[in-house]
Request: fold
Amino acid sequence: MSGYDLSRVAALVQHTPEDMTATVEAGMSLAAFQGSLRSQGQWLPIDPPFPEDLSIGALLAANPSGPRRFGYGTIREHLIGIRVALADGRLIKAGGNVVKNVAGYDLCKLFVGSHGALGCIVEATFKLRPLPESERFVKTSVESLSRLGDLIERTQRSGLNPTVLDVAGKRGTAPEIIIGFDGSPRETEWQAERAASFGISTPTDLAHESEFWSAPGEARSASTLPSKLHETLPGLDADAFVARVGAGRIHFRGGRPPDLPQLPSALLKRMKEAYDPNGVLPVPTWLQA
Reply:
């Protein structure tokens, strides 16, 4: 995803459990990083697909996310410092090693999602979260997409605080809404009971996520307003899909290509030229048009 081989810089630099921060070289896989944190009862609350094959550098370069995005956001929300090798060989640092570090420009967010076009991220510092004591997932099938819209709206107005709010479906079957909660056992129990009061009660897990990403064929993505999700899904005519309700992000296989958003190409090119005037670094597909 980042276009760089970072296999030789793959160490855990520092983990300070009392500050709930950790610094890691960009070549370490996300799975290995999470394993190191887990021994201290902490984690980086991000769950994109294939963490064993996803390096920290690629995670930051492409900004992928998973079902817990609803409750925890994307990797941008957890990044507090980076080191980046620029096209001219300079090594720069942005952010810091503590959460309360707001001096200067926030270059961390500039490099997240840049696909390696502006520089090579070689090290990153993250704020962490405690591992949840308990997790619960429940689901229900929805007979129609109009009913789906009503149920999503009711869920969001119910006082629940889910970490997962997904919709998943396959051609020929009714879509399902999947809700996940974490926290203390008492908190998750109360939320599950509240969800059951309006019909979402079948115990489940995140199998819909692993099934989608392990299936053959190309996966594509589309975005829409979260409030328009139930209206957008029929137009994709997908064979299978997983949708992130809070972000309006839909991953799907088969069906019709989505209408791509208009990007600010002039601004993106100016930014690329500022950081890489000689064209040394990779050019993402979205900048080639």
